[in-house]
Amino acid sequence: MQNTKISQNTERLKKKKLFLFDIDGTLAVGDTLYQGSADLLKHIECIGGKAYYITNNSTKSGLDYVEKFRSAFGLETSEDQFITSGYMTLRFLLEEFRNKKIFVLGTRSFLAQLQNAGLKVTEEAEEVDCVVAAYDSELTYEKLIRISRVLQTTDAPFYATNPDLCCPVDFGFVPDCGAICRMITAAAGKEPVYLGKPSRQVVDLCLELSGFRREETLVVGDRLYTDIACGINAEVDTCVVFTGEAKPEDMKDTPFPASFAFSNIKELSEALLP
Known about the structure:
The protein is α/β, with parallel strands linked by helices. Helices cover about 40% and strands about 20% of the residues. The longest helix is centred in the middle third of the chain and has 13 residues, at about 140-155.
């Protein structure tokens, strides 16, 4: 994809040092790394930059992603590079509901992540202080019954990891946390407060951890209402790639216009090279 806006901003793009990547639909899909992703990550390392992975996928912990990047992609990463919506939810719960009883709908990995941090997690719908829903690839109808019951029989506040409606997979898309929550809301009559992207907090955390400035930062993703909106909310430049949910025609009337747009991560990588 080529346009005047991109060519005029190429020099600004090349000054970026801190890259905040979505994963699914941006760098990879399933166990397949997109062409250009490895070259781009190597380039960031060569210029003394830093890459973080700010995924809204809460099914995996940071350690799970380290293993996936190594085994599936052949890439070495560290746990601190993965700022997931699950991790942002964990930080929120530790601050607001430490020593409280928390009902959670999520994967075994997500529940273990919360429990290992010392939170009082339950899947039983009695005497709870808050309710949390996550993208649950192990979802069952019994889980839906339990969360519907607790939302309708208690006054506990309702939170969710992320508003994404669909998650990219090798054959297309599957329902994500936002779609699961719409189903729950239709039954229970309560809408959650979402804690992952598009909240600016994930970008602010990466800036704090890395020491880079906002003008050196680029958020890269495939979804306008989460990835690009997150960057806009944090007042940093953004780049959309059209290998996931967003399509070029979506850019015409979107309330979340990206600073840069490329067909895929390979084109972004090529634009960054000297």
